[in-house]
Design brief:
This protein is mostly helical. The protein has twelve helices and no strands.
């Protein structure tokens, strides 16, 4: 029960992040914000536990690259779409996760998963398409972020139980920060954060990047990836709620139908994903301490 509660709290923190980040990237460019945010989180965790050995760096690098891709695409997308759209489209990672897991495990995908994926894309179309048939650039970037986050969950399901949780999380955050700041130097001129975004950086860096990801990684070693994804499906709902409360964003009727279909798709896929995942479950192995 503690792990489920921890994941629910992580989902709440992740959902609240969309509103904070949307306002912050209006001041600090996306890659710079991601880089400084994750550097703060990595530094906090490195003070608590240093990574030791090549294996943790190898596994942390694999997970960190996917985490960087997810957050870079998500943050760039937030500059061009609404916080509620971003949160709901990002929630598609819980649909993509079993698809990627099936590919990794080299077995077929069941019919409910295929049906759920179709429903999800119908919902995505209703949520994001106004005139014409093309998606907005920010929505497409956010869709790419959902795929990257799905890959991150699949990788964690294979490696998280092998390592102490704090150092492994720190390596992932450090890799994400390094790639983001390098990308910022190449494309954004490496801007330094000012006082107007300091609160957002500290909040997202310490509470979300360090705190929420630590909760996710630890919980996944206890209850396994499938049930982790089920609880984290709360994230898009929290994101839409915070956007409505703090930014006064409202979806029209078509948007609400699309949002509902995305959540239905998430439910259809996850209730048909058994306790045994398509990749090795961490819960079958004693986690490292």
């Amino acid at each position: 029960m503690v792990a489920y509660a921890a994941l629910a709290l992580a989902a709440l923190l992740f959902g609240a992040t969309f509103v904070v980040v949307k306002e912050a990237v209006a001041v600090l460019p996306p890659l710079a914000f991601v880089g400084w945010r994750f550097l703060i989180g990595a530094a906090a965790l490195l003070l608590l536990g240093l990574p030791r050995g090549k294996t943790i760096w190898r596994d942390g690098l694999a997970a960190g690259v996917l985490l960087f891709a997810g957050y870079a695409l998500q943050t760039a997308g937030l500059a061009e779409t609404s916080a509620s759209n971003s949160g709901l489209i990002t929630g598609l990672y819980v649909v993509f996760t079993p698809l990627l897991a099936a590919i990794v495990a080299r077995h077929g995908v069941n019919l409910p998963t295929i049906g759920g994926t179709i429903v999800a894309f119908v919902g995505l179309a209703l949520l994001t398409i106004d005139d014409g048939i093309s998606l907005a650039g920010g929505d497409l970037l956010t869709l790419g972020c959902a795929v990257a986050f799905a890959g991150h969950i699949v990788v964690l399901s294979r490696v998280a139980f092998r390592h102490p949780v704090i150092p492994l999380t720190a390596v992932q955050l450090l890799v994400t920060a390094s790639l983001a700041l390098a990308g910022s130097a190449l494309t954004e001129g490496f801007p330094l954060p000012g006082g107007e975004v300091l609160t957002a950086l500290l909040l997202t860096g310490l509470v979300v990047s360090a705190g929420a990801f630590l909760l996710q990684v630890w919980s996944q070693t206890v209850i396994g990836p499938s049930r982790t994804a089920i609880i984290l499906a709360l994230e898009p709902a929290f994101a839409a709620a915070f956007a409505a409360w703090l930014l006064a964003e409202r979806l029209d009727t078509q948007g609400w139908v699309g949002a509902a279909l995305i959540l239905v798709a998430i439910y259809l896929v996850l209730v048909n994903t058994g306790d045994r995942d398509a990749v090795p479950a961490a819960e079958a192995v004693t986690p490292a301490h």
